[in-house]
Design goal:
Elements (H helix, E strand, L loop, with lengths): L1 H53 L9 H11 L2 E6 L4 E4 L14 H7 L4 E6 L6 E9 L2 E8 H52 L13 H64 L9 H29 L7 E5 H18 L3 E4 L7 E5 H17 L6 E8 L3 E8 L21 H6 L6 H11 L4 E6 L3 E9 L9 H8 L2
Parallel strand pairs: 7-9
Antiparallel strand pairs: 1-2, 1-5, 3-4, 4-5, 6-8, 9-10, 10-12, 11-12
C-alpha cells in the first residue's frame, strides 16, 4: 500500500514539475524572442539613422560601390526603394528582378515620415526577415536581418534554461521523494485504520505523523474511532439491557401466571364444590368460604404488589418529596404493625432516633418500605421473638435498621433476595401469604429516592435489613433521568 502511494506521489510531483518546466520554457522563450526582436529593431533603426546621416545617396543614380560599402558596414541587408515602390538597390539581390515594394507595410510608414517595422517571409531570399525602413529624399532606406539569427539566440537560451531546469530538478525530485515517502507511510496507516474501522475494529489508532495536515487527519480519524467505539459500546450495552429486560419480562410473566394460577385454582375449585351441593353442608361450607376469601385476599394483595412494582419499574410513580422527621416515620410504621406483632406475641422495640433528625423523602413510599420490611420480619420471627427498629444519622444520610430474631437466611440466598418472586422457602412463603414481591418493591422505592438497601443474616439467629435515605434534596424531582439511573439496576 505505502509503495503504491509513494510511486503515485512521485509520479504526480514529476508531472507537476514537467508541466511547470514546459510552461516556463514557453513563457521565457516567447519573452526572449520578443526581447531579441525589440533589440534588433532598435539596432537596425540606429544603423539606418547613422547611414542616413553619414551618406548622401541619390536614388536616381546610386553609386553601387558606395552603397555596397554601406551594406557591409551595417552588417545587414540594405535596400534602397524609390517613392514609387521601385527597388533601386538591394545588397543581396538584383534590384531589376525584384517586385515593386510600394505595398510593403514598412515602406508605407516610411513614406508617411515614420519608422516602419515588419516581420515576414522574403520571396526573394526565401527566409523570414526583420525589416526596418526610414524615409530619405526620394524614397526610403531599409535594413533587414534574417530571423534565423534571432531564433539561433533563442535556441541557445532555451538550451541553457533546460540545463538549469534539469539541474534544479534533481534536488527537487529527491526532496519530493523524501516527502512522498513520509506522506505515503502516513496515508497508508490512515487507509489501514479506515479499513479496520470499516471492518468493525474500533480499537485501532494511528500515531500522528507526516506533517501538520496528515497529523490532523490522523487525530480526527482517531477521534472518529473513539466516538464509534463509545457509540457501539453504548449500543451493545443497550442491547444487553434489552435482552436482560426481555428475560425479566418473560420470567415476570411466567411468575405472575404461576402466582395467579394458585389462588384462582383454589377459588374455582371451592366455588364449584359449593355449587355442587357443599353450600348446604353445615360442617364445611363456612370453611370453604373462608378459604375462598383467604385466596381472594391473597390475589388482591398480589395484584396490588404487581401494580406497585410496575409503577416503580416503569418510572410512572409520582413522588412527593419533602423533609420529614425520622421519629414520626418510625412511630407511624410501628403503630400500624403493632397489632400484627401482638397477635404473634412478638415484641416490637423502637430505639428513639436522634432529636431533630430528618430525611428528604416521599412519606408514602417510605411508609410502604418500612411496612414491607416489618411485615417480613414479623412473618419469619417465631412467637415470643422480637423485632427492633432503629436509625443512624450521618451528615448526608439516615440509615434505617430492622432487626429480627427470626429463622434467618442462608448466606448463598442473600444476593437474590431482592429479585421478583424470589423466595428462600417457597412453601413457607405461600403458607404465610407472601407474594414474593415485597423486597423487590422495597429495593425500587429506596433507590428511586436516592438510597440503597442491604441485608445481613445468619441462619437461626435472625436478620437485619437496612436502607438509607438522603438528608437533603438530591434534585430527583427535577432530574428524572437520574432517578431512572438509580432504579434501573
Amino acid at each position: 500500500m505505502a509503495g503504491r502511494i509513494f510511486i503515485k506521489m512521485v509520479l504526480a510531483v514529476l508531472a507537476v514539475l514537467a508541466v511547470g518546466m514546459v510552461a516556463v520554457e514557453i513563457l521565457v522563450s516567447g519573452l526572449a524572442e520578443s526581447s531579441y526582436v525589440d533589440i534588433r529593431t532598435r539596432d537596425l533603426a540606429e544603423k539606418v539613422d547613422v547611414l542616413l546621416v553619414a551618406s548622401a545617396v541619390d536614388l536616381d543614380h546610386p553609386p553601387e560601390s558606395r552603397v555596397r560599402e554601406l551594406a557591409r558596414a551595417s552588417a545587414a541587408r540594405l535596400t534602397l526603394i524609390a517613392a514609387d515602390g521601385r527597388v533601386v538597390y538591394d545588397s543581396e539581390a538584383q534590384a531589376g528582378h525584384m517586385e515593386n515594394h510600394y505595398g510593403r507595410p514598412e515602406f508605407q510608414r516610411a513614406l508617411r515620415g515614420q519608422m516602419g517595422v515588419a516581420i515576414r517571409h522574403s520571396p526573394t531570399m526565401g527566409v523570414d526577415f526583420l525589416y526596418v525602413a526610414k524615409p530619405m529624399p526620394g524614397g526610403a532606406l531599409r535594413l533587414a536581418v534574417p530571423l534565423a539569427d534571432i531564433e539561433h539566440q533563442v535556441s541557445a537560451l532555451r538550451r541553457r534554461l533546460l540545463t538549469a531546469a534539469l539541474l534544479a530538478l534533481i534536488p527537487a525530485v529527491i526532496l519530493a521523494a523524501l516527502f512522498a515517502r513520509s506522506a505515503a507511510r502516513s496515508l497508508a496507516r490512515i487507509i489501514d485504520q479506515a479499513g479496520e474501522l470499516a471492518r468493525g475494529n474500533y480499537h485501532m489508532r494511528v500515531a500522528p505523523g507526516g506533517g501538520k495536515e496528515l497529523s490532523l487527519l490522523s487525530e480526527k480519524l482517531n477521534e472518529t474511532g473513539e466516538r464509534l467505539q463509545r457509540v457501539i459500546g453504548q449500543l451493545e450495552h443497550e442491547q444487553q439491557n434489552l435482552e436482560r429486560l426481555e428475560r425479566i419480562r418473560r420470567d415476570f410473566v411466567i411468575n405472575v401466571s404461576h402466582e395467579l394460577r394458585t389462588p384462582l385454582t383454589s377459588i374455582q375449585g371451592y366455588t364449584e364444590t359449593l355449587l355442587d351441593g357443599a353450600l348446604h353442608d353445615q360442617e364445611n361450607n363456612v370453611r370453604f368460604l373462608a378459604i375462598i376469601q383467604q385466596n381472594a385476599t391473597r390475589l388482591g394483595r398480589l395484584i396490588a404488589d404487581i401494580m406497585t412494582l410496575s409503577r416503580a419499574e416503569l418510572k410512572t410513580q409520582k413522588f412527593q418529596f419533602a423533609s420529614y422527621p425520622v421519629a414520626h416515620l418510625l412511630d407511624e410504621a410501628i403503630d400500624i404493625m403493632r397489632p400484627v406483632a401482638e397477635k404473634k406475641e412478638i415484641q416490637l422495640v423502637l430505639e428513639r432516633p436522634a432529636p431533630g433528625a430528618e430525611v428528604f423523602c416521599d412519606s408514602e413510599a417510605t411508609h410502604q418500605i418500612l411496612a414491607n420490611l416489618l411485615d417480613n420480619a414479623i412473618k419469619y420471627t417465631r412467637e415470643g421473638g422480637s423485632v427492633a427498629v432503629s436509625s443512624a444519622v450521618d451528615p448526608s444520610t439516615v440509615r434505617f435498621l430492622i432487626r429480627d430474631t427470626g429463622i434467618g437466611i442462608p448466606e448463598h440466598e442473600l444476593p437474590r433476595l431482592f429479585e421478583r418472586f424470589y423466595r428462600v422457602d417457597k412453601a413457607r412463603s405461600r403458607e404465610l401469604g407472601g407474594t414474593g414481591l415485597g423486597l423487590a418493591i422495597v429495593k425500587h422505592l429506596v433507590r428511586a429516592q436516592g438510597g440503597d438497601v442491604s441485608v445481613e443474616s445468619e441462619v437461626g439467629r435472625g436478620s437485619t435489613f437496612s436502607f438509607t435515605l438522603p438528608v437533603h434534596d438530591l434534585g430527583l424531582a427535577e432530574k428524572p433521568t437520574l432517578q431512572s439511573q438509580l432504579t434501573g439496576l
